[in-house]
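Hi there, hope your week has been kind to you so far. Would you mind checking whether the tokens look sensible for this chain? I owe you a coffee for this, so here goes:
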Amino acid sequence: MVKTILRLPAVQAESGVSRSTIYLRIRQGLWPNPVKLGPRSVGWPASEVEAVNAARIGGLNDEDIRALVIKLENARKPVAAVAEGSK
């Protein structure tokens, strides 16, 4: 399974919102936190961007989207634990 990470311009294009709105929604719990790609770069898993966009299109309310964001971010943890174990 290929995991694609989108940088900010691609996320803006996919979501149709500005940089400031993306970061506002992160603070509100309505958008997943980015993943660190390097010392000065971040990105978002394309599958997470797609899931949040689908939730918005589907008419989910903010509380349901917050629950989705938590679920998406928690799904990252097992992968991170495997990576830590290989060090």
User: Anything to note?
Assistant: The chain has a mean pLDDT of 92. The domain at 5-85 is CATH 1.10.1660.10 (Multidrug-efflux Transporter Regulator; Chain: A; Domain 2). The chain has one domain: 5-85.
